[in-house]
Write a structure and sequence with these properties.
112 residues; alpha+beta; 2 domains; 3-stranded mixed beta sheet; 3-stranded antiparallel beta sheet; globular
């Protein structure tokens, strides 16, 4: 049940806790605190700006990219304002009946 899982929301203005949701602002500090507790993986869902901050701080260990069989013609880039090159290694490919293909990559080196 995802409702029971702890959720961390990064916000520029809101702080505090509501049920199983904690609102915070500091990315690096929050990730360090979560990792120090041990346990399971940390999943990141967010917009391009938040993901870029995680990538640029070297906080992403695995990338899961889902390719949907739809051509939009316009839109936002998948990654924007990445500060350096990040070499990735393909770890896994999942193909779904819907036509979606999910590619899982892991880091092979740090940002350069």
């Amino acid at each position: 049940m995802t409702e029971a899982k702890e959720k961390i929301v990064f916000s520029r203005s809101k702080r505090g806790t509501e049920g199983n949701v904690t609102f915070t602002g500091g990315v690096q500090e929050t990730v360090e605190a979560l990792k120090s507790r041990g346990g399971r993986d940390i999943w990141l869902y967010g917009g391009a700006e938040l993901i870029t901050e995680f990538v640029n701080q070297g906080l992403v260990d695995e990338y899961r990219l889902s390719i949907h069989p739809v051509l939009l013609g316009r839109g936002k880039p998948l990654f924007n304002n990445i500060e350096g090159r990040l070499n990735l290694e393909l770890k896994k490919v999942n193909r779904y009946q819907s036509g979606v293909v999910q590619l899982t990559y892991g880091k092979t080196s740090e940002l350069s």
